[in-house]
Amino acid sequence: MHHWLHRLHLSHKISILGLIVLVMTGIPLTLYVTDILGELRQARQEAEGMPSLMAVNSVVQQLQVHRGTSAAMLGGDNTMALRRPAIREAVSQHLNQAQQALRQAQAPDALQQQLKQMVQSWQELEKAVDSRRLAAPQSMAQHTQLVSQLLLLNQELMHAFKLSLTPHADSQALIQAVLAQAPLLTENLGLLRGQGAGFLAQGELPPENRGALRALQRRVLDLQGDTGYSLQRAMALNEGLRASMTAPVEKMQALVGQSLKLANEQLMEAPTLTLAAPVFFDTLTRAIEAVNAVVTGGSDLLAQSLRAQESAQRQQLITVLASMALAIALSLWLALVFIRSITAPLHQAVQLAQAVSQGDLSGANHAAGTNEVGELLQAQQAMRARLRPMVAQVRSGADSVALASAEIAQGNMDLSGRTEQQASALEETAASMEELSATVRHNADNAREASLLASSARDVAVQGGDVVAQVVQTMQGINDSSHKIAEIISVIDGIAFQTNILALNAAVEAARAGEQGRGFAVVAGEVRSLAQRSAEAAKQIKQLIDASVLRVGEGNALVQKAGSTMGDIVTAIQKVNHIVSAISSASQEQANGVAQVGEAVTQMDQATQQNAALVEEMAAAANSLRLQGEELVQAVSFFSVHGESTMQP
To answer: CA-CA distances (angstroms) from residue 258 to 25, 511, 512?
Structure first.
């Protein structure tokens, strides 16, 4: 459900909500319109049924007149017989009009068939009366039966055209009065008129009929009261009816009262019947006509009221439909306006977000509303405005980082090359120091041998006095040894010179190594000092050896002087012994120093190699930093700050 809602656009969601509201509004509106249409159809049916009811009532009125006239004629009143043909034609004419009215109103076929049968009954009754085949009571009974059928048809028509279901109280009261109660009132007045005229025509009222007339009189009084009450209620509910119906109603009440008084005094309470039948007949006829006038006037007013109600219902329906159409149109217009007011800023916000996502930070800010969508658009515009200097600063920093990392990488590459050269030089120096160490150790061995020889020479010199005889031979050995010593001293002198040269080279390499070579420079200085001292000692020994060789050369000639100079020789030999011992100690110290220098050079070589590895790592890191800087520059160049073209990633 949520995924389906998330796929819908906002305009579609609002449209769905509008459709739901429209359906929710349309259901009661449909019910209301259906109710109005039902009331309109009912009002139309009521208006269409009024002509039929009025036509049937007219037939009833004329048939009632014919009933009274026929009763008087059959009772022997020839005056009433002269009136009957005109009344007979009126009944036939109103029956035809009633049939036509039912057809026009599209009354139910069953009711039309009933009226048709009543027409046939009327025709048979009229022929029987005209031929005087019926007695007055039989004529009265058949007329009354036909009137009852017409009144029943009237009630069926009221139900068929839904006049009995009208929702308006004034119309309901008026319908009850003029279509139900007044016809019954006229019927009972007609019965009273017919029976009374017949008895007056005969000149006597049998006692058995007097009670029936009194019951009929009470029935008329009840119907008069009911009809008057309904009319008064209708007039009370509708002021328009009061203005039109007051005079006819008052006239009807007065004439009905006079008729009942006349019937009571001249018929039911009279000891003898002296009133002429036509007088009684005309008096009740005027009362019946007054009632019929109320019925006719009320029917006309009811028809007008029903037509007015139909028009009002139609106008109400048109007004409601027009109002709802206008409301729906206004709602649709407002919905479109609301949707555009929401979707237009949202569309701008989406375009701005898409532009930022594509790296375009250019563009001017547009005015936005103060609602939530406007605040969103303003926030995005503010974000874009803040991103511009930030991206520009990041781009500048990225360029600087890329340039600096490139320089660092180049410097590290150069440093790596120099470190490798230094490592190579230190390896060579270490190899030279190993050779120097071997040479110095050999020199120390020779110095120890020289010291042993000097010790032997001292012993020989001490015993010189004892072995002077053997001096020549010994001097010859000394001469040979002196030559060897001279060679050894030359070697020592060469070693000291080479040591001095190596110490000088080591000092130069230590100076090139900088801070890391400072300790090595101190050691190299000490080695150089020892080398100089060794060279000086070797020089002195060489001079002594040269002198010894010279003396040995002259030894043969100076053997005689050996005894006197032996002490000097012993002293010189002792000095030589001391010097050789010093040379031996210096050579040992020199060997130890050269070993230390070798260890220092080895450590420097290891440190230099480690430095070379670190420099290579630094070069790799600097190169990686340079690549990252270039990637950062490329990434930042994706954004366009002032309308410049963007680089697609």
So the answer is: 62, 160, 158
Residues with Cβ < 8 Å from 539, sequence gap 6 or more?
A: 493
pLDDT digits (tens, 9 = 90+) for 522-549: 777 787 788 788 778 778 877 877 777 7
**Residue entry with tokens 């290891």:** 606
pLDDT digits (tens, 9 = 90+) for 26-61: 687 677 667 666 665 666 666 676 788 888 888 888
Q: What is the DSSP letter of 550?
A: H
Q: Within 10 Å of residue 496's Cβ, how many Cβ atoms?
A: 25
Residues 256, 140 within the same domain:
yes
Which one, of 66, 60, 59, 84, lies nearest residue 194 by Cα? 66
Question: Quick check: 64 and 190 in contact, CB under 8 A?
Answer: yes
How far apart CA 487 and CA 310 sit, in angstroms, is 157
CA distances from 630 to 398, 438, 450, 622 (A): 8, 55, 72, 12
The H or E element containing residue 10 is helix 10-74
Cβ contacts of residue 428 below 8 Å, gap of 6+?
Answer: none
- Domain end residue (candidates: 330, 347, 363): 330
Task: Report helix, strand or coil for 360.
Answer: strand
Residues 475 and 600 in one domain: yes
Q: At what angle do helices 277-357 and 10-74 cross, to 10 degrees?
A: 170
